[in-house]
Specification:
Blueprint: H1 3-35, H2 38-64, H3 79-108, H4 116-142, H5 146-171, H6 178-206, H7 213-224, E1 231-240, E2 243-252, H8 258-273, E3 278-287
Length: 288
């Protein structure tokens, strides 16, 4: 899939996420406050965070889709990670507030008011979020993007979270009210964990984390297919969006002609760049 198709796919995922989450925020907040369900209120705040996440996906994707220019020779791909970091930070902040509110609910012993609307909202939420999860999962499978992955995980988590909210509502029929506050705490911890994971992954890329060992081994294997290469001195990489710019230093026979050594370096560059997560390869030749 070309980069243009990838960006269109992420754009659609962002727009669908915004529309779906605005709808869920309205019905969750309305029913949550009317029934005094801390779990549903927490879930509605989570939907507000999801709207922000989808908006960041839309903006980050728009910036990342801008081609390279004189000021940004390698493009604007890292915008994906900057905006993914914003999503992670927002999740952590929201989770802290939800955790505090849920603890207060447990201490004060507040009881939610059972309503069939709560059941309906939970079921609708699960259906909407499952649909969004499947869409982003298939999109991310076609062309990996941290923005798509962040949204995919968020939709998946929401399906699980809302299922527990549904359980807490059903338990009120048996006069079990404490589970609602516990679910609120569980939701806040889940959101925090997801936020931290996204933040760490984005931070690693922005701090120029090296390419994974599996890909390094593949690069070495490709290099060793050329009998003329006597030594692979080092492999240095830096992230460019969701791919890597790779620098390879190889040792060749000092008697090899300049033309022959450069031709071999060009062939190696083309072979390595064919790897899925490699954006561009630069080979430096050192005579032995």
């Amino acid at each position: 899939m070309s980069d243009s198709k990838k960006f269109i796919l992420i754009k659609k995922a962002g727009i669908l996420g915004i529309i779906g989450n605005i709808f869920l925020l309205i019905i969750k907040a309305t029913v949550g406050f009317l029934s005094k369900s801390q779990a549903m209120i927490a879930d509605s705040v989570n939907s507000a965070g999801d709207i922000f996440a989808s908006l960041m996906t839309f903006i980050g994707n728009h910036i990342a889709s801008v081609p390279s220019d004189e000021d940004h020779n390698l493009g604007h791909g890292k915008a994906e990670y900057i905006f993914s970091m914003f999503i992670g930070i927002a999740m952590i902040v929201v989770s802290a507030k939800l955790f505090f509110d849920s603890i207060v609910t447990l201490i004060l012993g507040e009881k939610l008011i059972f309503s069939w609307f709560l059941i309906i909202v939970c079921i609708v939420t699960i259906i909407v979020k499952l649909s969004l999860f499947l869409y982003t999962y298939l999109a991310n499978k076609k062309y990996h993007s941290i923005l798509l992955e962040a949204n995919m995980k968020d939709h998946r988590n929401d399906c699980i979270v809302t299922t527990f909210t549904l359980i807490s509502v059903i338990l009120t029929l048996f006069n079990i009210y404490w589970f609602d506050g516990v679910v609120g705490i569980g939701i806040s911890i889940w959101i925090c964990y997801t936020g931290i994971s996204i933040f760490i992954e984005s931070y690693n890329v922005l701090m120029d984390i090296s390419i994974d060992e599996k890909t390094k081994d593949l690069i070495l294997k490709i290099a060793h297919n050329y009998n003329e290469i006597q030594d692979v001195k080092n492999i240095i990489s830096t992230p460019v969006g969701d791919k890597y710019l790779v620098f390879i230093t190889i040792g060749l026979d000092g008697n090899m002609s300049t033309f022959a050594s450069h031709s071999l370096a060009d062939e190696l560059e083309k072979s390595v760049t064919k790897l899925d997560n490699v954006y561009k390869t630069v080979v430096h030749v050192e005579p032995q």
